[in-house]
Amino acid sequence: LKEENAALRSKINKLQILSETQADKMRKLEKKLEENKIKEEKEAQDLEAMVQHVEQNLQLMTKRAVKAENSAAKLRQENALLQVQLRNYKAENEALQLGQAGLATAKQNAEVALQHLLKVTTSSRASIRQLLSGAESLQLVTDLLKSIDRISEVSEDGQ
């Protein structure tokens, strides 16, 4: 009985150690499971945030695309208007080239430009004369200052 009792106690001890080992493994696995759940929840939240960010970007790109399409439509309309204006201007240009009114206007413009040029030439000649006169006056003042400087040097040497 004692041997059997000792053997049973040994088995009980082994089973208790095994039980504790398995309980430790169980706790570790439960802890790891909890960590994995937390990790998965975080990943899910990150994924959700990323999805929202992508959706916002898609909305912005859609708005930009609509804006670009509207802008392109406006530019097409403006281009059509400019094409019409160009045709009108070409027709007007041809009419002016054929008519004497264009030639008379050009002659009148040339005459006005010639008169302006003559006035500018006359006033520039007067300005040039004034500049030359001023330059001569400045040269006289320079010469006078040089001579005063020489006189002061001579008087300093003489004393």
List keywords for this structure.
mainly alpha, 2 helices, ENTR1, Endosome-associated-trafficking regulator 1, coiled coil
List the SSEs and their pairings.
Blueprint: H1 2-98, H2 100-158
GO biological process, one term: positive regulation of protein localization to cilium
Family: Belongs to the ENTR1 family.
Keywords: Coiled coil
| Unreliable stretches covering 5 or more consecutive residues | none
Quick check: average pLDDT?
A: 86
Secondary structure tally: strands? 0
Using only C-alpha atoms, the radius of gyration works out to: 52 Å
- SS content category: mainly alpha
Overall shape: it is elongated
Helical residue percent band: over 70%
Biggest sheet details: none
SSE order: HH
Estimate what percentage of residues fall within beta strands: under 5%
Q: Count of helices?
A: 2
Task: Give the terminus-to-terminus CA distance.
Answer: 148 Å
Summarize the structure.
98% of the residues lie in helices and 0% in strands. It is an all-alpha fold and 159 residues long.
Explain the overall architecture.
The protein has two helices and no strands. It has 159 residues and is mainly α. The protein starts with a helix and ends with a helix.
